[in-house]
Structure formats: C-alpha cells, structure tokens
C-alpha cells in the first residue's frame, strides 16, 4: 500500500506552550483514520500542524506527504500538494461568493483555468448531493451561514478540490442528525483507493457512517493507543479516563 | 505573527486615463480670477443678464470667504494660475460622428460610446469646460424627459433652471461653492416629468484635458413626483505637472415618491484638487441613492448630502474610497433628517496604502421634527501597510427622543485568519490578499452598473497588481 | 470673564455644526477653600504648591486658559505611592463655595492605588467647582478611581484629568455623573507603555437643563496597548450631552486595541445628544472599533415589565436604573452607592 502521510516524532507548540509532544502517524492511500481524545488533548493542533497554520510552531519532527518533506512548506503549497482541511470553525469571507471562491481555489490548485460553465455544472451537482441550497453559490463565503451550512460548505470544497488527504476537524460538532448523515455521505462519496481521510472528533456520531480502518487515542499531546474500529466502542464504554494513565 | 509580509503595491498604471491630447481650444480665459474674466466668460457663453449678477455676487462672496480650517492641506493649489474657462474647439454635437477625431478618440479609449450603444438611455460628454456631445433616446423625449447640457437648458428652459439655480448649494455655503457660482461652465441638466420611469441609466462623462485648468460643471437633476431615474457620472483627467481644480456642484431635487440613483466613479489624475459639492433634497416618500467610488485626485473633499424634508423620505449612501501614495481623500456623507419616519443607511468603506490617507467624515443629524427616524451608519477602513493613514470623523446629532440610531466603525488590516483560510485552499498569500481587498469593496461594486463595476475592479486590480505580478 | 472654548475636538469637522468645541464662560472667580477633604495614609500625602509643573506640560485640559489659571492659582495635594505599596485615598469635595484644586498622583512601580472621589453640596447661587487630576502610573502599577458626582444643579463643574501609563500599567476609571448644572469633563490618557491598559466607564443621568460635555482622548503609543471607553446614560427634559471620544493610534502602536461605545437613552423629545466618536489611525496592525447608539427605551423591555404589573412610568424607571446600576455597583462603598442610587431615583 502506498504511503501518503508520514509524521515522525512531531512536537508542536502554540504561543510557547507545548501541545503535541511526539506524534508518530502513518496514513496510507485508501485508509480512513480517526483521532479521538478529550478537549484540549491536541487534536486540532495536529490538524493545523499538518495543514501548516503559521500560528502553530513545529519544534521537532517531520511531516512527509506523498514522498516530500513538507514540514517547512507554506500552507498554500500543501493545499496544492493535495492536503485539505475542513475547519472546525470556518470563518466568513465577506465579498467573495462561494462560487468564485471555490473556482479560484480549483484553478490555483490544478494550475488550469477552470471553465465557467463546466464549473457551474459541477458545483450544482455537488451541492445537490449535499442537499445544499444552490442559491448559496452566489452568497458570500459563510457570511450569515448556520453552523451546519458552514460545514456543508467545507465538504463541498473538499468534493470539488478533490484532495489526496482530507482532514476533517470536528466536522460533526454542532450538527444535527440529518446534517451528520449528509456530511458523512459526502465523505463516503469522496473516499476511494487513491485518497485518505483523517477524522478528528471527540464523539462517535460521525463514525456510525464512516468506518475507520485505524483509531488513535490522543491524550495530553501523545497518541496513547491505536486500534481498529472496535476501539471506538471501547472508548464509548470506558470513557477517556481509562486512557489517561497511558499518557 | 507580528512579523508579517506586507502587500507590496506598485503605484498604479493609469493606462488610458493618462493619455493626453494636444491642448487645443477655441477660447481660453486668462488664468486667475477677476471681474473681467467673469464678464468675459459670461459674454462668451451668451447667458441671460441675471446670471452675470449671480456670477459677480458669487465672486464677491468668494473673495471674502475663508478656507475652512478642517479641510486637508490644499496649499499646492495656486488659484492665480488656474484657468477657469477653457472652451474646446467644437460646438456641441448630437451625432457622435461629428465630434472631432481627437476628442472622440479620447472618449473612445474610455469606452464611452460603446457603453451608450449597449446600456444607456442617454449620454453626455464634457471636454474641459464645455459639453461636446449629448444624446438621448427618442422615446424618452416623447415622454417629456429633458437631458441636455446646462447651457442649452439655460436658454431653452430658463424658468426651470432659474427657479432651482444654486438654491441647494448657495454661494454663501463655502468658498468653493462661491467660486463655482462665479465661474461655472458645462454640466448636465435632467428633468424627468411626474410619473415617468426612466429604466435605463443616463450618463455624463467629464474629461478635463487642459493643463492647469479648472472644471466647474453644474449638474441639475429634477425628478418630479413619482418619477424615477438613474444618473451616472464619470470623471477623469490625464496627469500634468501643474495642479488642476475641480469644483463642481450637483443639485438634485427629488420630489414626493420619486427615486433618484446617482452613481459616480471618480478617477481624476493625482494632481487634481477635487473640491466638489453634491446635495439632494428629498420630498415625501422619495428616495435618493448615492453610489460613490473615489479613486483619483491628490486631495478630495466630497460629502454628498441628503436632506430628507418629506415624511418617509429615504437616503442610501454606498461609498468606497481608495487612497494610494500621495493622496489625501477626505470623503464621506451627510444626512439630515427633517421629517417624521425618515430613514437612512450609510455604508462606507475605505482602503489606504503606500502612505495615502483615507478619511471618513460624516454627519448624521436628526432634527426635532424627525420623530420615528431610523438611521444606520457603518464605516469600515482597511489599511494595507503601516505608513498610511485612516481616520474616521463622524458627527452624530440627535434632537428628539423618538429615534432609532446605530453607528459602527471599524479600522484594521486584513485578518491573518482569513488569509490562512484562503491559503488552505491553495491560493497564494498575495492572491489571497487581493481577493480579500476585492471582497471588501464588493458590496459597493455590485451596486454599480456593470461597466463601472468592471472599471472599479480594474482600478483595484491595477492598484494591487504589483503584488501579484 | 469672556467666553472660552471647552473640550475642543482634536480634529475639527464641519464648522456649521458647531460641535468642534463648546463655548462657555467660567462662572465666578475660583478660589481654594477648605471644603476639600483628603483622607488616607498621611505618609504619602503632601501639599502640592501653587504652580507645580504638570506631569505632561503639553496637556491643555478642558480649556487651556482655565487650566493655566488653575495651575497658577490653586494649591492642591500630592499623593506619592511608593513601589509595591497598596493604598486607598478618599477625596471629598463639598461644594459649599467656589473651589479650585489640584491632585497629583505618582504611583510607583508595582504599587496599587484606589481613589474614591466624591463630590456633593452646592449653593443657591451658581458657582464653580474646578479641579485637575493627574496620574503618573509607573510600570506594573495599578490604579482604580471611582468618582461620584452628586453636586447640586447650580454648579459649573470642570474636571481636567491626565493619565500617563508606563509598561503594563493598568488603570480603571469609573465615573457616576449625576449632579452639576454644566459639566465639562476632559480626559486624556496617554498609553505610552507597552501592554498598558485602561478602561474608562462613565454613567450619566441628566434632566432639566443639565449639560454633560465629555471629551476623552486615548492616545495609543505603546505596543499592545489596550483601551476601552464606555459612556452610557439617559437624558430627560432639555438635558444635553456631548461626547467627543477619540481613539488615536500612533505609528508604532503595534497590536494595540481600542474600543469606544456611546449609548444614550432619550426620554423626552426636547433632549439633545451629540456624539463624535473619532478613530484616528496611523498603524495598520491595530483593532479599533466604535459604536454609538441613541434611542428610546426598548419597547420589548417595556412590554415585558408592564406584563409583570408595572406601570409604564415605573417600568421606565426600572429600565433607566438597570442601565446605570451596574456602574454604581462597582463603586464599592456602601454609603456612596446608596447616596448615588437615591440621587438616581430622585431624578427619574
């Protein structure tokens, strides 16, 4: 199986506070990984470090993606290389329409001028699949969107930009049952042999639809246990307290 | 994140705006300002007697009035050397083909006749001090709509012009209003009879070609009861080494239940002192909508004023100001609520970069009679670097208790968070910044007619291009 | 005395509005009296001789002439809080006569100072109460000043206050302004120090012909400096309020934040509210916000209270009181709080 992401001994701090304290993680093409853990364990930090958020400082270790060391790469270069992050709290971008935004992103990532008509068609298809009101294509990115609509907009971008690795940072949080189902189905449609998904969550709602190959428990900046899908149930029964001793 | 990259913005290539024609004219008044010059202008323009009195009285007011103490530095403006009246070598034409080739090519480059063919009901073009071209669709003429240059109106519709002439902006208002009263020439006149809806915009384009000249056009629009019209004004000038002055006056009369939209894209060259006055009085149930883009000039003082005198009158102001190197753009708007149930919305955005200064100066006054008035003001300022300046100077005066008023202002730079979000989607930092700047002014550009929105976006792209290139 | 121009706007605007300053004459010649009482640790309080230099010689006060005259004629009190000390000083002004005084506070590094400033009293005839407060707040020092003005409505009340903040200085000012016929309050806060912080809240309540003319300049010079201005109040009868608030971000005030909010409740058709919230900015890496609102009592609130059995007048009283109460509650002195609350209730 082809290796897609390899993280070695990663230490990350935010404003001089150490959050990740030595993470090793390998993700192959075709796999679905889940990182679970308590609030403040460092889950979002891991996502942001892979994506390259400048507010997160890598103190030690390396991130190799698709055979290239990207530890020092700028965030847009990582996006071009095929990493996508669905934000926990997607911000609004006044003045830029959803359509214009995604089309510009797609043109930049593919390096090709995306033709307007074909793009409109694709956008409409993908929005329909997500039960996303197509009039939102002409609205400003996330401006006045509900929490659920913002998350749908993230999954819409993922579907169109078609990355090699999709990181879903708490995509299920704050969503009602129907929205979780729609988003999960969207991720399932996207997932195939050639890409991988990294799900970050602290509850298991989203995992009822997305079957993970690997489950990692992150406590206090370290992965303390890795297992298969059955680990989700184990956590549900025992709670995170049972793993704190391992940290 | 304290150490961060700045958007490096090269000074704008103004392209077609800067192409100047040979300076030819059929008549030019001497530089400076004397009674003789005023008499000469008057005689040359063959105006009625009362206009000479008006001009001379204005000159007298001009001579004794002081320059306001709060305006930006205008010491670069040498009134002694400003040519107040430059008559181009042509009489006004109603057929585009008859306009002389050099003047025509100027407007061609600016895209004016093309716009007329596609999206306008009437067009006027002023070159230096005189209108050189005017046209209006035949069916509008049949409905009684008048759209012509103000000189023609002064002869053919003298009673109307005289009735309204500088009643909204009296020469005593301020020094530049007095100057305007003394030396005005050119401009447009629009009269829309009661109930007539003009669905396609009328447009006037003002081009100042002569070096060291002043442009003092007078625009008068009267929208009678229940009528509706959209008027577009565009301004530009090539850059010369000597300073130019623009002191126009725009007087708008919106009667009961009438609607006027007044759109402007101002792109004077950066040696222009733009001391312009615009004012509108609105009757019962009437609406004035201002859409204003200020990009050019060295110094601008421009605060379109809406006076809501009729019950339920409404004013809307949407403006964007972009100040680059060497520019001091002091702009904003004034709204005066004088009647019950009047409403107003003000939405202003400014951008400053490369040492430019963008000032929002505003007034919101709710008088004692304006019970149940509602007003909102929103000002946002974006600074693209730390050598520029951005000030907000609003005045809010409330003189009765039954009002609902909100005012908000924000100053800042493009958020790092927004840049990061765009970059996670593969967009480069420079392009992300440019997109966010365009997004910042989008609520305004979408209010503009298409060709003006395109022009504004081009201006912004030109301004930002150095960073993307 | 001839007319003076008070509380001049740092950047003037349209002249015809007549809001760039407020003209007024000083009422009566000022003289110092014994009606000023200063309580606290005697070791830190001393006399401030006439003509003592200003902490900032460029400070002009509400009016230059008035301030210069005050400095050259009035004696006052100097309070010097040593490094790391904790002190409380109480000042009471009983306006039984014309008053002119100065209070100069130097708060050394790491010290804590709380000042309780209380004004009341008055005469049948109009008279003048004028004083000048200066605070030099050194690095890591903390100052809290709680001022309550319950002067009679015969008094012309003028306060000049200047504050200098060094690195990490932390200042909290609370004003409860209820009394006075004509109040000119001028505040200039100089955030020179890195990470210096100031919060200034002013509650006012005006009726009859009262005037509250408030000017405040927040000058951000230090990096990461923070300021927050909040004025809120209510006006009835022919009362008038002018608020001239300026947030001035100087070049180099990187990562600073400033906010100002002016909220005015209008209770009668004859009141007048003027608001000039200026934002001046020469540094891009700052966050500056201002908001102003003016209006009637929220009809939903009124409806809610009336549905609980209160009459309209009672409900209005509750709403006005509930607006000002949170500021009064922060005074921390039971007797003064009670006096302030009584004054509020008597007015509405």
UniProtKB/TrEMBL annotation, chain A:
The keyword Membrane does not apply. GO terms for molecular function: ATP binding; ATP hydrolysis activity. The keyword GTP-binding does not apply. CDD domains: ABC_FeS_Assembly. InterPro entries: AAA+_ATPase, ABC_transporter-like_ATP-bd, ABC_transporter-like_CS, FeS-cluster_ATPase_SufC, P-loop_NTPase. It comes from the Bacteria. Keywords: ATP-binding, Nucleotide-binding. Residues 5-245 form the ABC transporter domain. SMART domains: AAA. PANTHER family: ABC TRANSPORTER I FAMILY MEMBER 6, CHLOROPLASTIC. Belongs to the ABC transporter superfamily. Ycf16 family. This is ABC transporter ATP-binding protein. The lineage of its organism: Bacteria, Bacillati, Bacillota, Negativicutes, Veillonellales. The gene is sufC.
TrEMBL record, chain B:
Residues 88-203 form the SUF system FeS cluster assembly SufBD N-terminal domain. Belongs to the iron-sulfur cluster assembly SufBD family. GO terms for biological process: iron-sulfur cluster assembly. Residues 206-440 form the SUF system FeS cluster assembly SufBD core domain. This is Fe-S cluster assembly protein SufB. It holds the Pfam family SUFBD_core. The lineage of its organism: Bacteria, Bacillati, Bacillota, Negativicutes, Veillonellales.
Automatic annotation (TrEMBL), chain C:
Residues 98-322 form the SUF system FeS cluster assembly SufBD core domain. SUPFAM superfamilies: Stabilizer of iron transporter SufD. One of its GO terms (biological process) is iron-sulfur cluster assembly. This is Fe-S cluster assembly protein SufD.
């Amino acid at each position: 199986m082809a290796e897609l992401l390899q993280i070695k001994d990663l230490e990350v701090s935010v404003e001089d506070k150490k959050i990740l304290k030595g993470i090793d993680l390998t993700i192959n093409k075709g796999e679905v990984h889940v990182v679970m853990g308590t609030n403040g364990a460092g889950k979002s930090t891991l996502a942001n470090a892979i994506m390259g958020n400048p507010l997160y400082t890598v103190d030690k270790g390396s991130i190799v993606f698709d055979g290239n060391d990207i530890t020092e790469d700028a965030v847009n270069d990582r996006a071009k290389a095929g990493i996508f992050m669905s934000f926990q709290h997607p911000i609004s971008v006044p003045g830029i329409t959803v359509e214009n935004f995604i089309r510009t992103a797609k043109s930049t990532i593919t390096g090709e001028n995306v033709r307007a008509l074909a793009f409109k068609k694709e956008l409409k298809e993908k929005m329909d699949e997500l039960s996303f009101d197509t009039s939102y294509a002409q609205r400003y990115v996330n401006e006045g969107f509900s929490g659920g609509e913002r998350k749908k907009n993230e999954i819409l971008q993922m579907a169109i930009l078609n990355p090699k690795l999709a990181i879903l940072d708490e995509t299920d949080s704050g969503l009602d049952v129907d929205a979780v189902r729609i988003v999960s189905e969207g991720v399932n449609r996207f997932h195939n042999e050639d890409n991988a998904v990294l799900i970050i969550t602290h509850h298991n709602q989203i995992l009822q639809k997305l079957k993970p190959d690997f489950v990692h428990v992150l406590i206090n900046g370290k992965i303390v246990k890795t297992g298969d899908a059955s680990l989700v149930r184990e956590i549900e029964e025992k709670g995170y307290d049972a793993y704190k001793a391992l940290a | 994140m304290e150490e961060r990259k700045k958007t490096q913005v090269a000074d704008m290539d103004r392209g077609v705006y800067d192409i100047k024609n040979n300076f030819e004219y059929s008549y030019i008044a001497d530089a400076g300002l004397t009674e003789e010059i005023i008499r000469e202008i008057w005689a040359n323009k063959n105006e009625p007697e009362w206009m000479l009195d008006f001009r001379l009285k204005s000159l007298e007011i001009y001579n004794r009035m002081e320059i306001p103490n709060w305006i930006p530095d205008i010491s670069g403006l040498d009134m002694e050397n400003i040519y107040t009246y430059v008559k181009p070598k042509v009489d006004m034409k109603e057929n585009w083909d008859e306009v002389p080739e050099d003047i025509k090519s100027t407007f061609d480059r600016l895209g004016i006749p093309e716009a007329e063919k596609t999206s306008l009901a009437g067009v006027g073009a002023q070159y230096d001090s005189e209108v050189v071209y005017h046209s209006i669709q035949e069916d509008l003429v049949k409905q009684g709509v008048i759209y012509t240059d103000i000189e023609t109106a002064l002869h053919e519709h003298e009673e109307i012009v005289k009735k309204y002439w500088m009643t909204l902006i009296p020469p005593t208002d301020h020094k530049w209003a007095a100057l305007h009263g003394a030396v005005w020439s050119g401009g447009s006149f629009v009269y829309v009879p009661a109930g007539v809806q003009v669905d396609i915009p009328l447009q006037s384009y003002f081009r100042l070609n002569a070096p060291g000249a002043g442009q003092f056009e007078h625009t008068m629009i009267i929208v009678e009861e229940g009528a509706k019209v959209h008027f577009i004004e565009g301004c530009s000038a090539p850059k010369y080494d000597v300073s130019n002055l623009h002191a126009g006056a725009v007087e708008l009369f919106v009667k009961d239940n009438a609607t006027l939209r007044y759109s402007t894209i101002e792109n004077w060259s950066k040696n222009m002192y733009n001391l312009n006055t615009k004012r509108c009085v609105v009757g019962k149930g009437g609406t004035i909508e201002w859409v204003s883009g200020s990009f050019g000039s060295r110094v601008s003082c421009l605060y379109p004023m809406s006076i809501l005198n009729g019950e339920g009158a409404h004013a809307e102001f949407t403006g964007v100001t972009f100040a680059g190197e060497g520019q001091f753009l002091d702009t904003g708007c004034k709204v005066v609520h004088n009647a019950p149930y009047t409403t107003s919305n003000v939405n202003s955005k400014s951008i400053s970069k490369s040492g430019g200064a963008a000032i929002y100066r505003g007034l919101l006054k709710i008088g004692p009679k304006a019970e149940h008035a509602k007003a909102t003001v929103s000002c946002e300022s974006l600074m693209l670097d730390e050598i520029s300046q951005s000030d907000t100077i609003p005045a809010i005066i409330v003189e009765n208790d039954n009002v609902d008023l909100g005012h908000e202002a924000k100053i800042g730079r493009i958020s790092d968070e927004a840049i990061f979000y765009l970059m996670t989607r593969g967009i480069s930092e420079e392009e992300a910044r440019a997109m966010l700047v365009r997004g910042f002014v989008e609520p305004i550009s979408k209010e503009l007619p298409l060709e003006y929105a395109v022009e504004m976006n081009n201006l912004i792209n030109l301004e930002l291009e150095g960073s993307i290139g | 005395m001839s007319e003076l121009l008070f509380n001049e706007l740092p950047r003037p605007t349209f002249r015809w509005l007549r809001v760039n300053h407020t003209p007024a004459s000083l009422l009566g010649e000022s003289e110092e009296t014994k009606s000023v009482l200063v309580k606290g640790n005697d070791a830190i309080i001393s006399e401030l001789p006439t003509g003592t230099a200003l902490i900032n010689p460029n400070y002009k006060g509400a009016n230059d002439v008035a301030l210069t005259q005050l400095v050259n004629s009035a004696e006052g009190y100097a309070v010097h809080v040593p490094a790391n000390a904790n002190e409380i000083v109480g000042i009471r002004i009983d306006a039984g006569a014309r008053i002119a005084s100065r209070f100069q506070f130097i708060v050394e590094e790491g010290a804590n100072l709380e000042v309780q400033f209380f004004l009341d009293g008055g005469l049948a005839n109009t008279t003048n109460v004028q004083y000048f407060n200066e605070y030099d707040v050194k690095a890591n020092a903390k100052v809290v000043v709680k001022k309550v003005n319950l002067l009679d409505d015969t008094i012309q009340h003028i306060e000049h206050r200047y504050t200098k903040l060094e690195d990490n200085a932390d200042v909290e000012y609370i004003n409860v302004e209820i009394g006075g016929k004509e109040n000119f309050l001028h505040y200039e806060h100089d955030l020179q120090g890195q990470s210096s912080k100031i919060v200034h809240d002013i509650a006012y309540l005006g009726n009859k012909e009262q005037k509250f003319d408030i000017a405040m300049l927040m000058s951000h010079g230090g990096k990461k400096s923070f300021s927050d201005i909040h004025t809120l109040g209510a006006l009835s009868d022919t009362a008038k309020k002018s608020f001239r608030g300026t947030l001035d971000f100087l070049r180099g005030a990187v990562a600073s934040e400033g906010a100002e909010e002016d909220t005015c409740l209008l209770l009668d058709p004859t009141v007048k509210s003027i608001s000039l919230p200026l934002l001046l900015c020469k540094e891009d890496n700052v966050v500056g916000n201002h908001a102003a609102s003016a209006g009637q009592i929220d009809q939903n609130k009124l409806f809610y209270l009336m549905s609980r059995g209160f009459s309209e007048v009672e409900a209005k009283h509750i709403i006005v009181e509930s607006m000002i109460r949170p500021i009064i509650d922060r005074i921390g002195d039971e007797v003064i709080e009670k006096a302030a609350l009584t004054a509020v209730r008597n007015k509405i």
